[in-house]
Amino acid sequence: MPDFLNKIRSVENRISVKKQIINTMGVWVLGIILGVISKYLDCTASNELPYIVEYLDVRNFLGRFAIWIFLAVCISIYSVSPGRAALNVFVFFAAMVTSYYLYSKFIAGFFPRSYAMIWAVLTILSPVLAFICWYSKGGSKIAAVISAGIVAVLFNMTFSYGWIYFDIQSVLELLVFICGIIVLRRTTIKETIIVTAIGMVLAFAIHIVIPFRFG
Could you tell me the pTM of the whole model? Predict the structure, then answer.
């Protein structure tokens, strides 16, 4: 463990503080933009949106959790350290949620308090989850277990299933799931397949214990 921590510090030291701040600011701007876009689509009549946006149901897609969890995982994994991952993901969610609900209150003219509380709780929890997710890119068994856990979460946000049915939430969710596997890939194809399979089994186990959709 000390060697691993030394490697983390070494990577952080190679990246200047200025660049780390710029990266975090970039994540902040991305969160603001996506929050505004999401609320804009949510408030715009269907016949005013481009056909492809309406056909793919982008509005509802951005209103569910899968894409945001995937983006948070990406931000976590590509941060230079678990601490930076926690900070960057928190900044992203804080910016996205704030811009979304400021638009909702001052432009759209309403504020869905109960739904906002769900996103507020997720934002508060996001640094801890991001800190853990960062370790999924390692080569240890613990990293593989974390990756499998993330695959399980994305799986249950992508597919609706029960004893006699199995369905895809949407094409966009399926794309997010595939991209999630690519981002979380292990050093070999075999290891990636094993982790994905474990994640799917874990997803079914979670679904049995918590038979509710969070996507």
Answer: 0.88
